């Protein structure tokens, strides 16, 4: 008996066999698995797309050129000229408005997530997977399909009703006023840091029931996780994103426990208790929803307000039209969304052989729907490159997507955009942007990283 106890003790010591196994497992979790996730999910696709871009492939080109912040109007037109679905090395892409809507609304297509099959890549992907909630991984609404999506969205939609959003309008106006009160009109300011980012993160924090003293944490976590929607991240950015998502996951666990113990008058507290046929959201689903609200509700609205400020300062006649008729502000927000949308594109994977606009699409092929390109389709929008706040059909843009994955936060984004833009131009009618504006290097999310301005 004594010898067995001794052997067990030896195995459990740091230098024993079990101790060694634990060390190896820990090293794999900390270093090897993340490296494999990055290699499969980012390094390999980036290499393939860059090679495709050098060979003139449209999918490769839009991926590479978008990350430079370049004007993509010519590329949108080129893709559109290649037919309803332009062939690429990995599937198809389109900038035609009716085709984008058709693909996003067709149940033959599902959300595009990497699928590596049963081979070596598939086994490595399964081995290296992580349980940390990710905005574009299940159970996020962006990444699940019916029947799970149907149940999930029903519960979430109950909370994000038009009435619930409208109840936030007065508070959103108060937040905008408070933020502008803190600005010194005599000093230049980076509007992304001082206003465009703080407005939506404060609104999102109230939706999530985040205590005031923790909102800087949410802002930092949101900024760190923002590139998570992109494909082809560098190793450094990927590690920063994973660190941010891990921290957010840990924070969410504590926050959900606090709300269960002391529920408040906020949408996340209501979501915790929401039930459909007696069934509510699991812990992972609640985390995924909160993460999606932060990633989509915060990051896209930052871009909407920043892009809107930039466009209106560059088009003073349009700003004068809004001052002459303030009822146009709502339409102006939709024109900003059409002309310079916060999200460039989204992808769908063909789940079964089908035909779109007369073009056969095989099971397993990727179709990239370029939302920004569809918003410039001349068959729908007259003079599509012109920014016009009086455009009668500005609301026909596809910046919120279409079909079952249409953006749940569309009403919230419109409301925040309208208040955010109208209030800053009412308060500072002499606002002008300064040299030094810098677009974000992200592919999917399109907006400004810095937007220096003079308020006087």
Automatic annotation (TrEMBL):
CDD domains to which the protein is assigned, alphabetical: CYP164-like (cd20625)
SUPFAM superfamilies: Cytochrome P450
GO biological process: cholesterol catabolic process
The keyword Oxidoreductase appears for this protein: yes
Keyword list, A-Z: Heme, Iron, Metal-binding, Monooxygenase, Oxidoreductase
Family note: Belongs to the cytochrome P450 family.
Protein name according to UniProt: Cytochrome P450
Natural source organism: Lentzea albida
